[in-house]
Amino acid sequence: MNKTELKKILKPLIKQCIKEVIFEDGTLSNIVSEVARGLGTAPVITETQTPKKQKMKLESESDAKARLQRKRQMLDAIGKDAYNGVDLFEGTTPAPPPEQQGRGALAGVDPRDPGVDITNFASSGMWKKLAGT
Fold it and tell me: Could you tell me which of 93, 99, 92, 95 has the C-alpha nearest to residue 56?
């Protein structure tokens, strides 16, 4: 008996045995009930996104124009004659919003602050004095 003849005889027998085990012995119903039970208790995964902190941006040209327009509208609303034509908002800048106040060495410092001028520090000979030479 060769391999193909053995295969022809055994294949229908094995197929019949598997059908009997799955359908008649109740194995299929056990498999289905376990899968259904597993699907029912699976944890639900939900995705939540936290809002990202917005980085501070410098005032663009369009924002500056809009700010000046608001100033003009406010002056027009109170009347130019109310303060003898004096621009109450001349030379003022808007206060930084409270969200920009964070932690760090420069917390609370206006980003438009030019800081300290150190251009003459290097040429003043201060480094030589500090180094002791």
Answer: 99
